[in-house]
Design goal:
34% helix; single chain; 6-stranded mixed sheet; 196 residues; 6 helices; 17% strand; alpha/beta
Length: 196
């Protein structure tokens, strides 16, 4: 797995169930592929260094959160003080995962501390080794479309959670774009099978 170089410490992995968050976290931690099952609790791994990190790169606290909607409070609690938000999607099941990923991203990015800190967002297109995996352009288009559809209903329900420009943008009918979200958003393709 690879990532952009961030000088931040706490990286929170979030996203839909069966996206491969735990497989990626374990591949980073153990440097090999390990069989997984859906997580029911958040798992924090301190002192993480990635293979391509220079020796002076600060270590990370990598937090793997459950993808189940029933456990969303856990994800929101971990994301509230995250330095980097990493949303993981199964690139080979993009159509099935984008609505859930957008729902999670909306909740997280609408959190007041996340909006205030303008935490960088890393969209991880996992399972990129699979031929059917979506391209960066298809992921951007699908996620922006789902987030655009979510905004009016969330605003109508008053579910803005004090999210500053993120939530304020909900009232606008201009199409949602990551470029105007108030967060630096980067995309990376990954596969737990590519563990070092």
């Amino acid at each position: 797995p690879s990532r952009k170089k961030f000088s931040h410490k706490k990286v929170v992995l979030l996203g839909p169930s069966h996206a491969g968050k735990t497989a990626l976290a374990l591949a980073i931690r153990h440097k090999k592929t390990i069989p997984t099952f859906p997580s029911l609790v958040a798992t924090a791994t301190p002192g993480v260094k990635l293979p391509d990190d220079p020796p002076n790169q600060p270590t990370l606290l990598l937090v793997d959160t459950p993808g189940s909607g029933n456990l969303r409070a856990t994800t929101l609690g971990e994301a509230a003080d995250a330095d980097v938000i990493a949303c993981v999607l199964d690139g080979s099941r993009l159509a099935a995962q984008c609505a859930d990923a957008a729902d999670i991203l909306y909740d997280v990015l609408a959190l007041e501390p996340v909006a205030r800190a303008a935490a960088p967002v890393l969209i991880v297109v996992n399972k990129s080794d699979v031929r059917a995996a979506g391209t960066e352009a298809s992921v951007v288009s699908a996620l922006e479309g789902e987030l655009d559809r979510a905004r009016p209903s969330r605003t109508t329900l008053g579910d803005t959670r004090g999210g500053g420009t993120w939530a304020a943008g909900s009232a606008s009918r201009s199409r949602f774009s990551f470029g105007t979200s108030g967060h630096t958003v980067s995309f990376v393709r990954s596969s737990a099978l590519d563990a070092p």
